[in-house]
Amino acid sequence: xxxxxxxxxxxxxxxxxxxxxxxxxxxxxxxxxxxxxxxxxxxxxxxxxxxxxxxxxxxxxxxxxxxxxxxxxxxxxxxxxxxxxxxxxxxxxxxxxxxxxxxxxxxxxxxxxxxxxxxxxxxxxxxxxxxxxxxxxxxxxxxxxxxxxxxxxxxxxxxxxxxxxxxxxxxxxxxxxxxxxxxxxxxxxxxxxxxxxxxxxxxxxxxxxxxxxxxxxxxxxxxxxxxxxxxxxxxxxxxxxxxxxxxxxxxxxxxxxxxxxxxxxxxxxxxxxxxxxxxxxxxxxxxxxxxxxxxxxxxxxxxxxxxxxxxxxxxxxxxxxxxxxxxxxxxxxxxxxxxxxxxxxxxxxxxxxxxxxxxxxxxxxxxxxxxxxxxx
Length: 376
Ligand SMILES: Cc1ncc(COP(=O)(O)O)c(C=O)c1O
Hints:
Number of strands: 17
CATH class of the domain at 47-284: Alpha Beta
Radius of gyration: 20 Å
CATH architecture of the domain at 47-284: 3-Layer(aba) Sandwich
Number of helices: 11
Bound molecules: pyridoxal-5'-phosphate
Order of helices and strands: EEEHHHEHEHEHEEEHEEEHHEEHEEEH
Shape: globular
Strand content: 15-25%
Helix content: 25-40%
């Protein structure tokens, strides 16, 4: 049996990881500034994470949502506290797409409306409605196409007001910083405008925090920079540091009813243990402050490179715009300097390292980046 061949892959077999370093099967060391798509939040094999998962596995790994799982309540409490949304409600699932799918569905249950506003270059996942509000027709199958998705230009307040005119909007979904879209930071005034219009029209503000959330920007949710509360925050990636877990954090104004949402695996014992270990580590090791500090340092240093067109981002979610002729940079960083980075179109190097990245590793990257640019 062959694998279904959908991923263009690098010929590297990573077999081990510690903190911000990973090692291949030949023992070559790599600096990981990508965290496997922004997933590794507290570093590979963090001792507290390993111990909590190991201990849990010796107790019980899984039982369904038909019984009491106190770990879920502990997680809700901790997440409420660390995210500063103590009166919100937690629904646990397994991935970012599933979190958004549930958020969009919940919004529609809440206000009985159908239309969803999304934005140019948005990425919200690959399941049916999540992909329908993702701005990439190539990955939208005919069965996923829907007239309920409305795409608006990024940060265009007039277009937003106009779209609300018919009062049919169920929800607005927006990443605080577009990730796949090339690290585009949502302007504060635009997020505030969404909040106002959603309030005026009984629409639900969904803050997709799957990539930009979980402390990566120095605040727990990157939408927090706008000083507003969204109605639903979706999250995944950094939440489990590699263990598949996703969630939505739901405003107290949205009331649940039995059967409204559900999942077999979501909120299982192991997933909760992983998510708790991540939050405990973020808190104990002060990782949001570190993300803000090391991120600010990286951004200010990167802005000094002449060949860089633009540097965007917040904290440890950084996009480096390069001119088209420097299309080799990401590959050179990987194969000549053993540094993993990400990419976005047209020629953006994406940095999404663990939140405990040290300044020394940031400097190592800056040096390699300098050499790569000089030789390009
Ligand atoms: C902003 C955003 N939302 C949703 C998703 C989908 O998450 P998943 O791949 O876990 O389904 C992603 C994944 O890249 C993402 O970046």
